[in-house]
C-alpha cells in the first residue's frame, strides 16, 4: 500500500507519489503556499531545529479579527475558575429558560466554532481549506457522545432493597462504584475531571450508528489532501463491560506467566510448567468449561489437558516459551476459557466464561471493527485506536496488536521468512507502513515496560508498530477507581514522573522509527516535548518530510505549535472533532475544563492572540482602519516586533 495517494505534479502534470518539500513562510499567502506538500515540488529547503513558536503574525495568518477575538474570549473564559465551575449549570439554566435554540446557538458561535470542525464529516473541508495552506492535516474525530449524556447528572440514590445493603450504603454516601459501564460514577463531567470520551452502551443500534459515523470519517479523511487519519474508540462499538471482562482475562493470563516462571529467568520451560501444574493439582477446581482451544477434556487436572495446553503454548516444540511467545498465543475469543483453565491450575479460579449472548456481542463488536479496518485499508487512511480507561487497556491493546500483525506488514505478512540478520528482522526493502496505531499513555506506571515488550513483539512478528504517544486523559477517574477498589493507583503520583516516562518513551520510539520498526504520532500540547522531538529528529537524521513522525494537537489548542511545525515542513495534524452541537456538549465541557493546559500552554495562546491583535491594530492597514490613519511605519516593523514581543 502506498503511504501517500498519487497527486498531479503542479509543474509538469505528471503523477508523483512523494510529499513535496515545504517552503519558508512569507507574510503574504501565496499560491505556492496553498499547494505546498500537496503536489507542488519546489527546491528543498533546510529544516530548522530551533523553531520559533512566538511568531504570531505567521501563526495567525489568514484568520480574520473576528476569529481571533472569539478565540480570545473562549480561552479567557476557560481560564476563569468561576466560569469553569459553573459552566455546566449555566448551560442547563440557559436551555431551560431560553430554550435549546438560543442557548445552543450561543454555544455554536463560541466554543463549538473554536473547538469543533462542523456538524458532518464533510464539514471538515471548510476548516481544512485554511489549515492545509499552513501545512496542517486533519485527524477526523467523531465527537458525539449521546451515551455519556445519561451520566451528566447525579444518579438517583438506590435503596437497600434495590441494591442490597452494601450498594445501598454506598448510595446513601453519594458514591457509585466506578466500572466500565458507569465510568463517571454518577458525577457530572466537571466533577469527574474526565478529559477524554467515555462510552457506556450495549445497544446494538447505537453501536451501528457509531460505526456508520466512523466509516464516514474514514471516507472523508481519504478525500483530504495528504495522508488521511481517523480516530476510533472500541467502547463505541460494543459494551464496555464486555471489554472490561475480556481485559481482566487477558491481564490474568499475562500475569500468570510469572506463576509458571518458577526461577524468574523470563522463560517457562516444559519442566517448570509440569512442576507448577502438579504442585497445584490438589487446589484445582472441577466443573465449567476449562479446556484450551484444542482440548475436549472436562477435567482441568488431566494429563491430556496439560499436554495439549503445553503443545498449544509451544507450537514450535522449543521446550520453553518466553513472555512474548506466551502473549502471542492468546486468542481473544478463547481467552476466558484459557484464563479459567490456567487459574484453576494455579489454585485460584475465577468466573471468566462468556455467556452465549456475550459471545454474540463480542462477534458483533469485532465485526464492526473489521468493517472499519477494511475501509481504512482500502482508502489508504491510517486508523488510530484511542486509549481508554486502564481497566479496558489489556483488551484494547490485544485487539490492536492483532490488527497490526495483520495489516502493518510487508506483502506476505508476518509469516514471511526471516532475513539472515535474525528472527523478525526487517530489511530496508521490507519496511512496512503502519496502518493501525495504538495509544500509549505515559501517566500509567507500566507504559515504558509495555512499550519495550510491544516493540520486541513487533520485531519478532515482523510488523511495524504504530504508536500514538500521549500523557493521558483519565487521571482523576483512574485515581478514584483505584481508591474505591482498594488497589494501588495505576498512574504516577507526580506530574514529573509522567514527564520523565514521556521523554523516555519518545526517545525509544524515535529510535525505533530510525530503525524502520515504528511510526509515531506525537500527541502533545507541551512545547518542551515538541522541541525535544524536533531536536532528536535532527540528531537522528529523520527528515521531517519523509520520516513517519507525526505531530498532533486538538483543534483550538496550541496553535503556535501546530502552525509553526506545519510552516516548517513537519507532518502536523489537528484533531478535528465533528458532530451536532447538542451531542458534542460533553466534549466541549471537557475542553473548558482543561485547567492545567489553560494555565500553561493556553496562557501562551492568549499572549500570542493579544500580541497579534495589537500588531494588526497599530501596524496592519489591511486589518485596521486605525493603522491606515497612522503615519507609515517601516516595512519590516511588523516582522521585528512579532519575533521579539514575546522573547
TrEMBL record:
SUPFAM superfamilies: EF-hand, FAD-linked oxidoreductase. One of its GO terms (biological process) is L-proline catabolic process to L-glutamate. GO terms for cellular component: mitochondrion. Residues 289-301, 637-647 have a biased composition (Low complexity). It comes from the Eukaryota. Signal peptide: none annotated. Residues 248-283 form the EF-hand domain. InterPro entries: EF-hand-dom_pair, EF_Hand_1_Ca_BS, EF_hand_dom, FAD-linked_oxidoreductase-like, Proline_DH_dom, Proline_oxidase. One of its GO terms (molecular function) is calcium ion binding. Residues 281-301, 627-647 are annotated as: Disordered. Its EC number is 1.5.5.2. Its cofactor is FAD. Gene3D superfamilies: 3.20.20.220, EF-hand (1.10.238.10). Keywords: Calcium, FAD, Flavoprotein, Oxidoreductase, Proline metabolism. It catalyses: L-proline + a quinone = (S)-1-pyrroline-5-carboxylate + a quinol + H(+). SMART domains: EFh (SM00054). It holds the Pfam family Pro_dh. Converts proline to delta-1-pyrroline-5-carboxylate. Belongs to the proline oxidase family. This is Proline dehydrogenase. The gene is PLEST005389.
Amino acid at each position: 500500500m502506498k503511504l501517500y495517494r498519487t497527486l498531479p505534479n503542479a509543474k509538469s502534470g505528471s503523477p508523483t507519489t512523494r510529499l513535496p518539500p515545504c517552503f519558508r513562510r512569507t507574510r503574504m499567502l501565496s499560491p505556492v503556499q496553498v499547494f505546498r506538500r500537496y503536489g507542488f515540488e519546489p527546491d528543498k529547503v533546510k529544516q530548522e531545529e530551533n523553531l520559533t513558536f512566538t511568531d504570531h503574525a505567521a501563526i495567525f495568518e489568514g484568520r480574520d479579527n473576528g476569529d481571533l477575538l472569539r478565540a480570545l474570549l473562549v480561552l479567557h473564559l476557560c481560564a476563569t475558575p468561576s466560569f469553569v465551575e459553573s459552566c455546566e449549570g449555566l448551560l442547563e439554566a440557559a436551555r431551560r429558560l431560553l430554550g435549546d435554540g438560543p442557548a445552543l446557538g450561543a454555544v455554536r458561535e463560541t466554543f463549538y466554532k473554536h473547538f469543533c470542525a462542523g456538524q458532518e464529516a464533510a464539514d471538515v473541508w471548510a476548516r481544512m481549506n485554511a489549515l492545509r495552506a499552513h501545512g496542517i492535516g486533519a485527524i477526523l474525530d467523531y465527537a458525539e457522545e449521546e451515551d455519556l449524556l445519561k451520566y451528566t447528572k447525579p444518579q438517583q440514590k438506590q435503596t437497600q432493597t434495590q441494591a442490597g445493603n452494601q450498594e445501598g450504603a454506598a448510595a446513601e454516601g453519594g458514591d457509585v462504584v466506578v466500572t466500565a459501564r458507569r465510568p463517571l460514577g454518577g458525577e457530572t463531567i466537571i466533577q469527574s475531571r474526565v478529559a477524554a470520551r467515555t462510552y457506556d452502551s450495549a445497544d446494538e443500534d447505537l453501536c451501528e450508528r457509531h460505526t456508520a459515523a466512523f466509516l464516514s470519517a474514514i471516507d472523508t479523511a481519504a478525500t483530504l489532501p495528504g495522508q488521511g487519519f481517523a480516530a476510533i474508540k472500541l467502547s463505541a462499538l460494543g459494551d464496555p463491560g464486555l471489554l472490561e471482562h475480556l481485559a481482566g482475562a487477558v491481564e490474568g493470563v499475562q500475569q500468570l506467566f510469572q506463576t509458571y516462571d518458577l526461577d524468574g529467568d523470563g522463560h517457562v520451560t516444559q519442566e517448570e510448567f509440569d512442576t507448577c501444574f502438579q504442585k497445584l493439582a490438589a487446589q484445582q477446581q472441577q466443573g465449567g468449561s476449562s479446556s484450551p482451544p484444542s482440548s475436549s477434556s472436562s477435567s482441568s487436572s488431566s494429563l491430556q489437558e496439560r499436554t495439549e495446553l503445553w503443545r498449544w503454548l509451544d507450537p514450535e516444540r522449543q521446550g520453553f516459551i518466553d513472555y512474548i511467545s506466551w502473549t502471542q498465543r492468546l486468542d481473544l475469543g478463547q481467552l476466558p476459557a484459557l484464563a479459567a483453565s490456567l487459574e484453576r491450575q494455579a489454585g485460584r479460579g475465577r468466573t471468566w466464561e462468556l455467556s452465549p449472548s456475550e459471545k454474540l456481542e463480542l462477534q458483533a463488536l469485532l465485526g464492526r471493527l473489521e468493517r472499519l479496518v477494511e475501509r481504512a485499508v482500502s482508502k489508504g487512511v491510517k486508523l488510530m485506536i484511542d486509549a481508554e480507561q486502564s481497566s479496558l487497556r489489556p483488551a484494547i491493546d490485544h485487539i490492536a496488536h492483532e490488527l497490526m500483525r495483520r495489516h502493518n506488514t510487508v506483502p506476505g505478512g508476518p509469516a514471511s521468512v526471516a532475513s539472515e540478520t535474525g528472527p523478525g528482522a526487517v530489511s530496508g526493502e521490507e519496511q512496512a507502513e503502519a496502518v493501525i496505531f495504538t495509544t500509549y499513555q505515559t501517566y500509567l506506571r507500566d507504559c515504558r515496560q509495555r512499550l519495550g515488550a510491544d516493540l520486541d513483539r513487533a520485531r519478532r512478528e515482523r510488523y511495524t508498530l504504530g504508536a500514538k504517544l500521549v500523557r493521558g486523559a483519565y487521571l482523576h477517574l483512574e485515581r478514584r477507581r483505584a481508591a474505591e477498589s482498594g488497589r494501588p493507583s495505576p498512574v504516577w503520583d507526580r506530574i514529573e514522573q509522567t514527564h520523565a516516562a514521556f521523554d523516555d518513551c519518545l526517545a525509544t520510539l524515535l529510535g525505533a522509527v530510525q530503525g524502520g520498526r515504528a511510526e509515531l504520532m506525537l500527541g502533545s500540547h507541551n512545547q518542551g516535548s515538541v522541541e525535544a522531538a524536533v531536536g532528536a529528529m535532527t540528531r537522528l537524521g529523520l527528515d521531517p518530510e519523509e520520516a513517519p513522525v507525526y505531530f498532533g494537537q486538538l483543534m483550538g489548542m496550541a496553535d503556535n505549535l501546530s502552525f509553526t511545525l506545519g510552516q516548517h515542513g513537519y507532518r502536523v495534524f489537528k484533531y478535528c472533532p465533528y458532530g451536532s452541537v447538542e451531542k458534542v456538549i460533553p466534549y466541549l465541557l471537557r475542553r473548558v475544563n482543561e485547567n492545567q493546559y489553560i494555565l500553561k500552554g493556553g496562557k501562551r495562546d492568549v499572549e500570542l492572540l493579544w500580541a497579534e491583535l495589537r500588531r494588526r491594530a497599530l501596524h496592519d492597514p489591511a486589518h485596521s482602519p486605525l493603522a491606515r490613519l497612522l503615519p507609515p511605519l517601516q516595512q519590516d516593523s511588523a516582522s521585528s516586533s512579532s519575533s521579539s514581543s514575546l522573547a
